[in-house]
Amino acid sequence: MQGLVRAVRRFGCSNFQRRFASTLVIAEHDNSALNAITRSAVTAASKLGGDVDLLVAGNNCDKVVEEAAKISGVKRVLKASAPHLERRLAEELEALILHAQNSNKYTHIMGASSACTKSVLPRVAAKLDVNQISEVIAIESEDTFVRPIYAGNALATVKSSDAVKVMTTRATSFDKAEMNGSASVEEISSAAVGASEWKSEELSKSDRPELTAANVIVAGGRGLKSSENFQMLYKFADKLGAAVGASRAAVDAGYMPNDAQIGQTGKVVAPDLYFAIGISGFTGAIQHLAGMKDSKTIVAINKDPDAPIFQVSDIGLVDDLFNVVPTMTEEIKK
Amino acid sequence: MRALVGVKRVIDYAVKVRVKGDGSGVETAGVKMSMNPFCEIAVEEAVRLKEKGILKEIIAVSIGPAQAQETIRTALAMGADRGMHVKHDDILQPLAVAKLLKAVAEKEKPDMILLGKQAIDDDCNQTGQMLASLMGWPQATFASKVDVEGSNLTVVREIDGGLETIGMKLPAVITTDLRLNEPRYATLPNIMKAKKKKIDATDPAELGVDVSSKLQTVKVVEPPTRQAGGVVGSVQELMAKLKEKSLI
Question: What is an example of a GO molecular function annotated in this UniProt entry (chain A) (predicted)?
Fold first, then answer.
């Protein structure tokens, strides 16, 4: 059967081509470890019902390739390892993905939504003269998708008749694929483009779990009043093995770095447990909710009983966070 | 040097949108509209580059219905030199917008194009990247710091784990993140002056761009709502509840 599909594809019988999806997923990694959001993208790709290839583009990324090959549902891992791909600059990745597309004629090209995929996939879509569908949260069929608009205040169902569907998927909307697969590995390459140059990076170092992957998140807002006071949240988070996030107000006030921002234009999270501490929701309510309202249980701690955050929380506590947080931290110790 | 800045008219960020009963979209009639916040940041950055003597001219371009002129006027009041209005009444996908901006750019020959990283209505985050790709230019997306020296552009980008600095040669497309700058308010004298600045008008046909799309919106619905869960009286009660649910 696989042979037939391939033969049909090779000879370009368009009716058959349309029926058999084949998807290229872009892996997210840092050259040493695979980011778990890749596994959510593979789950999304598997819903399309065809072969799934996973592209690992980087440099000295053998460990990532090894991990990638274990993701259930992946048929082939396309490994592209070269110095010009190390930093996954958009122009370099674009050339590589277009090369893979030329050789394999995928019906779908996608990746979990990240700074990297958001930068490169629209470039790929434009070159293929197709639309991109951003932040897909549900796949209804191989051409019909659901995505949030207006900061998640409306859900749009869109249908694409483009020849190739290029999309990003929201990692929190798809379960992570299991790790008991055994994909084959194939090497591919593309010439360096050299349009832009990576100079340096400044990553926020933390021993805590990554925000988008954490099961528990402790998020602070302007109510924390200073970056020093965030230490109190860190202590609490460490007791829970939680990640620490922030509202835009807290980031703008300089209490937390930008990459900790949760919201429409920051990170979208959906942990099992979300603590909104000193986040009233009075300012930027719509935008903050866009980033966290799919959390399973939301706990809000705020001294203002009228704070809009209480309208979405499962458990609310009206009290001064400076009393509550240390007490909670103590309680967990017991 | 010359910059093209794309600005979009969207429902004001503070408005809670309402989905239309027939599922065709969200209600825009009688709703407060403003310039997309990320576009304001793009205009502000261009004006600052002009104040530093790097840019000579800033052209603000908007694609949309007649009212998009107001958005262009706002950009002119902030310091853009002239405007370009591409008249089109229907909602366009980023691909069509990128093609239109490319056509405008081919006429105006800018050295850089500044756009917001995303519009807060469609939340696509695509136009700048598509435009860069169509132009064959490098891109600097999610910029939180922009430095121009001669034809060298250095941009600090907001990425998932922190910040990244990249360099490239102009011409390039830059898309702005929230932290790039604090946009200025247009003062009354500047708003008056902006009325005298020129806005040229064109349309997709005149630009020779096919804006038809193979992406159709089937329906738009309200997201599922969350029920407020009530409040507890004490920390102990809160902890007990979380333990009961085996969350901690």
Answer: flavin adenine dinucleotide binding
Residues of A in contact with B140 (CB under 8 A): 196
Helix, strand, coil distribution of chain A in percent, nearest 5: 35, 30, 40
Higher local confidence (pLDDT), A119 or A207? A119
Which chain B residues are closer than 8 Å to A124 by Cβ? Answer: 133
Q: Select from A263, A268, A260 the least CA-distant residue to A137.
A: A268
Threshold 0.90, pTM exceeds: yes
Which of A127, A155, A195 is closest, CB to CB, to B168?
Answer: A195
Contact by Cβ (8 Å): B6, B112: no
Residue B193: helix, strand or coil by DSSP?
helix
Nearest CA in chain B to A271: B247
Binding-site positions of A for FAD: 222, 247-248, 261-265, 278-288, 302
What is the pLDDT confidence band of residue A131, given thresholds at 50, 70 and 90? very high
In our burial notation (b when 16+ CB lie closer than 10 A, e otherwise), range B81-116 reads: bbbbbbbbeeebbbbbbbbbbbbbbeebebbbbbbb
CA of B244, closest CA in chain A: separation in Å? Answer: 13
Q: What is the CATH number of the domain that holds B103?
A: 3.40.50.620
DSSP-derived letter for residue A88 is -
pLDDT of residue A334: 65
Give ipTM to 2 decimals.
0.97
Please give the residue of chain B at the shortest CA–CA distance from A314: B229
Interchain contact, A327 vs B245, CB within 8 Å? no
Paired residues of A110 in beta bridges: A25, A167
Across the beta sheet with B215-221, what order do the strands follow? Answer: A138-141, A144-149, A154-160, B215-221
Is A82's pLDDT higher than 70?
Answer: yes
Closest CA to A67 of A114, A111, A28: A28
| Closest approach of A1 to chain B, Cα-based (Å) | 31
Q: What is the pLDDT of residue A21?
A: 86
| Residue A231: alpha-carbon gap to chain centroid | 27
- Binned at pLDDT 50, 70 and 90, residue A127 comes out as very high
Q: Inform me whether the pLDDT recorded for B14 exceeds 80.
A: yes
Provide the domain count of chain B. Answer: 1
Nearest to B167 by CA among A94, A195, A91, A118: A195
A159 to chain B: closest CA residue: B216
In chain A, the domains with their CATH numbers are 2-187 (3.40.50.620), 211-331 (3.40.50.1220)
Which residues form the domain of B14? 2-244
**Residue range A187-206, pLDDT digits in tens:** 999 999 999 999 999 998 88
Helices (H), A28-154: 37-46, 62-68, 90-104, 115-127
3-state DSSP assignment of residue A266: coil
